[in-house]
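Title: Prediction job returns without error message
Component: structure pipeline
Severity: low
Priority: P3
Assignee: unassigned

Description:
Job completed but the reporter wants confirmation the result is attached to the right record. Sequence as submitted:
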Amino acid sequence: MLDCLTTLSPALIGEIRYLRVNAFTFPITAPADVRRYTTHPFSVTLSLFPGLQLDLLVVEDCYHDENVNSAWVDIGTCNEISSLVDSDGWKELHFITPTTEFMISPHEYQNSRAAQPSDWNERLQIRDGSGFGALVIMCVANDANLPGATDDPDRRTLTAVPGHLETTEQAARNNALITNKPRYRCFIDQREVRVVAKRGKDAV
C-alpha cells in the first residue's frame, strides 16, 4: 500500500474510495542503526495520508496466514482491530480473519479482554457521538473453510465475545497449554470472522 500511495498526489489520494489490503505491521527503523526498529500496527500507515476519505476499507488479517504458528497472533489480531476502529480515513471498515481463534484463544490478551464487539462499538460511538449511526458488529461464517462467506448475510451469524479477567491460575494453565502444545492452532475452528465498523454521519 505504501509503495502505491506514496507515488500519488494528495489530490488523487483524496479521490480513492475503496481499498483492500493485508494488515502487515509497519516498522520504523532508527536512522543510526537500521537493525533497530519499532513496529507499529497497520492503522498507523493510514495517518500518513490525511487526505484519505475511503468509503470502504477492507483489511485482511496477516497474523493468521498459513504456517504462522505463534501465541502472539491472537493478540496481534485483537490489537489490530482495536487500532483500526480508532483510526481515521474510512467511512466503513471490514476486518476479515480466516479463523475464530482470536475469539477463543487459550492465550489471554494481557490477562484481560473487553467484551467484543460491544467495547469497539462503544468506543466508536464515543468518537462520533451517539445517535449518528456509528456501529460495530462481528459475524462468523456458518461453515468452515469458505473464504468470503461472511459477506453473505445468509451464510453468517452475528456473534459476540464476553469480556473476562484471567486469574493467576488461569494464566499459568493457559501459558502451559501454549508451551506444551505449540501447534494448538491446528485444532482451532476455521470459520471466517468479519468485523464491520461504520462511522457516524459526517465522520471521516
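Comment from assignee: result matches the submitted record. The first strand starts at residue 18 and ends at 22.
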